[in-house]
Amino acid sequence: MEINIVDKYEKLEKVGEGTYGKVYKAQDKATGQLVALKKTRLEMDEEGIPPTALREISLLNLLSHSIYVVRLLAVEQAAKNGKPVLYLVFEFLDTDLKKYLDVYRRGPAARPLPATLIKNFLYQLCKGVAHCHGHGVLHRDLKPQNLLVDKDKGILKIADLGLGRAFTVPMKSYTHEIVTLWYRAPEVLLGATHYSTGVDMWSVGCIFAEMARRQALFPGDSELQQLLHIFRLLGTPSEEQWPGVSELRDWHEFPQWKPQSLARVVPTLEPEGVDLLSKMLQLDPSNRISAIAAMEHPYFDSLDKSQF
Amino acid sequence: MATEEWALPDEEDAAYDYEFEFDLENPFTSPADEPIASLLDAEAHHAPSVSAAASAARRDAVAFISKVRFSGELAVHPRVAYLALNYVDRFLSKRQLACEQQPWPRLLALSCLSLAAKMQRVATFSIDHIQRDEDFMFDAATVRRMERWVLGALEWRARSVTPFAFLSFFLSVCYPPPQHPPQVAAIKARAVDLLLRAQPEVKMAEFSPSVVAASALLAAAREVAAANLPAFQAGVAACPFVNSEKLRECGEVLAAACGVGPGRAAASADTPVTVLGHHRSASSASESDWTIGSATNGGGGAKKRCMGPPSQWG
Questions:
Q1: Locate the Protein kinase domain: which residues (chain A) (predicted)?
Q2: Which of B9, B216, B263, B264 allows an S-S link to B191, with CB 3.0 to 4.6 Å?
């Protein structure tokens, strides 16, 4: 039943040490297919497979039918020193959006991203997020590193979906490397315990702006700094603008900033794009646009949606 | 009609809205925006094979699940038993037990019950307790190993797409307006009842979950709201993915397995699900043009087969 993982997969290189553990690029020895091998740190005690992990992995399995979500190919149960170890085997894609943007950001080929490419990627991202939300699943950690890109086909796929609850304490990296806060929604930063699909749409907005700017919109290095970045651009929220904000756990008095012009921070973005961005970056999560509504926004009118 | 006292325990960790819950009626944690396409897409991965359903190992596994299921003391809920048998069927469609003799089918059933309980948050499930009457008891480590083997065979697709997942769709899309919530709820409850009872029937494996769901709902509507049946039938028939020939066949198998159909509704009132037995009226039975099942209602034998625990699940 348990396999020795090296019998089935040839580990080629370590491609990441993310929030959820080590990730290897590997090759399926039988088929030659390239895969991303994620070793989980799942503890199996006398109760066997933890119920949450069981429910979560099976959900991942159902969701990975969308082409905009990185496909879970297999779950391998291996044994190491007599203890069961679980590996999640995903399809391998050669790059992620962060690396992809780096090429445009600096070096000899630095240049703006073509407007159609931004639109195309954003639409695919919204489609993937709509798929997850439509099935009741939040991502909670959308960022360019979690969006994998198939350069040849021009396809963008969401990775590391949902892998949080069963495997780690959410929002903490087990390797103690710095977990980026840049894409984190204000309600999460303010300590809201009940949050919803809006947290992902905030991240989508940040990623959208980053594609247009070629640099992060809110590059904070602490939770407080992150909030200050956000309020400086969008204005400090009041109880009128965002009912309940002052009840949130980590709310306190912030400097009073007035909202700035969003168009100024994304100067190359067309007006429809700025309008969509402003709907994604609403401070009050209940005002934020949904993924499915975003897909209908006029910004995408010039896009040939039949290709998706 | 309350056929079940089923309530999930309160969410202990109330801090999170999403906890990857699983519900037979909604495999995707929350009502999906586009459920039917996803469900139809997924159902092919979740259907057992006919040969597996006919195997001796399946029969023995069913016997054990049925024994546990109808023994109130063991308190295994009908939906846990249902999901467990679904796992048994899907496992046997992919793998063969090394030995088809007891106690191995029982080990399979036990592991599937344990997995089904984990999926549905039944915290009180005890492996020792549930097999305390058996002459040979499996230890926890063996059951855990078997759990992992089962999951491997299922490819970790533990969110089974069963007929339960299609009930809401058919009722909301195909049931004629105006939809009276109590009536619709009664039809659904009766359909659930029929699904639970028909599952052990080997021939049910021939039909896809969506077709089984439609058949159960039509059979239920026939009893509960016969006047609406023709319109409901027409609505179901209009679904492009419902094969009318399969639907007719499935209706016959279901009716035979549960002892329902024209003139039989009264006899079916006492279900194994409601241990206390609700005696329901047969008023709707004779005034309908419902013909499914009339040809193959194998007399009292079919009826009796569904009447009680435990051997009838074979």
A1: 9-300
A2: B216
Residue written as token pair 């003391």: B73
Provide the token pair at A285. Answer: 């999560």
- What architecture is the B163-258 domain classified under in CATH? Orthogonal Bundle (1.10)
CA–CA dist B309, A97 (Å, integer) = 59
Domain boundaries, chain A: 5-91, 95-300
Catalytic residue among A7, A45, A141, A200: A141
The per-residue pLDDT of chain A, averaged, comes to 88
Q: Please state which of the ranges A144-153, B66-75, B258-267 shows the lowest mean pLDDT.
A: B258-267
CB atoms closer than 10 angstroms to residue B281:
10
Judged by a CB distance cut-off of 8 A, whether residue B139 touches chain A is no
Which pTM was predicted?
Answer: 0.77
Ordered by start, the domain boundaries in chain B are 48-154, 163-258
Which residue does chain A place closest to B111, by CA atoms? A48
Type and span of the H or E element at B232? helix B229-237
For the segment B253-310, what is each residue's pLDDT rounded down to a tens digit?
999 999 887 655 444 433 443 333 333 333 333 222 232 333 333 333 333 332 233 3
Q: What is the ipTM of this complex?
A: 0.75
| Alpha carbons within 13 A on the beta-carbon side of B81 | 29
Spatial contact of A119 and A303, defined as CB atoms under 8 Å apart: yes
Q: What is the pLDDT of residues A244-253, one digit of tens each?
A: 999 999 999 9
Contact present, A212 and A273 (Cβ < 8 Å)? yes
Closest C-alpha to A53, from B240, B85, B20: B20
B13 φ/ψ sector (left φ>0, alpha ψ -120 to 50, else beta):
beta
Question: B48-154 and B163-258 share one CATH topology?
Answer: yes
To the nearest 10°, report the CA torsion of B107, B110, B115, B121.
-160
Shortest CA gap A162–chain B (Å): 9
The CATH class of the A95-300 domain is: mainly alpha
Angstrom distance (rounded) from CA B117 to CA A55: 11
What does the pLDDT look like over A183-220, one tens digit per residue? 999 999 999 877 789 999 999 999 999 999 999 999 99
CATH architecture of A5-91: 2-Layer Sandwich (3.30)
Identify which of B228, B233, B229, B258 has the alpha carbon closest to the alpha carbon of residue B244.
B233
The DSSP code sequence of B29-51 is SS--SSHHHHHHHHHGGGPPPHH
Whether the Cβ atoms of residue B112 and residue B88 lie closer than 8 Å to each other: yes
Burial (Cβ within 10 Å: 0-12, 13-18, ≥19) of residue B248: middle
**Is B143 within 8 Å of chain A by CB?**
yes
Work out the pLDDT band at B136, boundaries 50, 70, 90: confident
Cα separation of A238 and A15, whole Å?
44
C-alpha count within 13 angstroms, C-beta hemisphere, residue A40? 27
Is A80 annotated as contributing to ligand binding?
A: no
Query: What are phi and psi for residue A134, nearest 5 degrees?
Result: -60, -20
Name chain A contacts of B158, Cβ cutoff 8 Å.
54-55, 57-58
CATH number of B48-154: 1.10.472.10
